[in-house]
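A protein record in our archive is deliberately plain, so that people and models can read it alike. The record that follows is passed on verbatim for readers who wish to inspect the format.
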Amino acid sequence: MLSNPQTPIAPRDHFSSIVPNWAHLGPPLRPAPDDSAVVQRVVAGLGGAAHAVVLGLTPEIIACDWPADVQLSAVDHSPPMIQALWPPAKCPPQSEVILGNWCAMPFASDSIDLVAGDGCYVLQTYPDGYASLTQEVGRVLKPGGVFVSWDPNPFNPVILYRYLATPRSPNQFIFWPHKVLPLFKSSGLSASTKFFYARLPWTRNRFLGTCIGIVAHLHHKETHG
C-alpha cells in the first residue's frame, strides 16, 4: 500500500543512484545481523496492536518477526527506492509505505510505539537536521515508546577515511553521537549508545566498531499550562 503520495519531499534523492546495487551492499551501509537483532529485541516486547514506524525501507528491519497484529508504516522520501524495495519479501500483514519526510511524519502525536531506522542521522545536517528529526521522533512516540537506530561510527579510522577520502553523496554527513544525545534529553527521551561490528564481540568498541547504535526510551512528555 502506498500512502500520502503528495507529501512534500526533501530535495535530496541520491538513493536513486544506488538502487541497482542495493542487493550487493553490506555493512555498514546495510545492517549486519547484530544490528537488526537490536530491533528484534525491542519488537519482541511490543504490546498488542502496536504501531511501528520504520524510517526508510531497510529489508532487515521490515523483515523482523513482528507481532501478528502490529501495524507497520515505512516512511521514505525516495520514489525510486520505494519502487525497487516495496513490497518487501517479508513484512507484517498490516504494512504500508508512505512517501514522506522523516522530519514531518503524517502521524498524530503520541501515537507510535516504536520508531526504527538505520543511517538516519548521517542524512541530517547539524544542528537543524539533528534537532528536527529528534523532535519529530519525540512528538510521534507514545510515553513508553522506543526509538532504535544506528549510524556509521566516525571513530573507526576506516569509516572516517571513507568519508573524507572517497566519493560520497553531498547529502551524507558524519554522525557525532555526543551532539545528538542532548537533543534526545530535551525531547524527553533517555538514550544510550553502543558500538557494533557483526558477530565479533572483541571489535565492539570505539575504534573498531563499524556502527553506533542508539536506543532511546520516551518516559514522559512535558506538559505546559
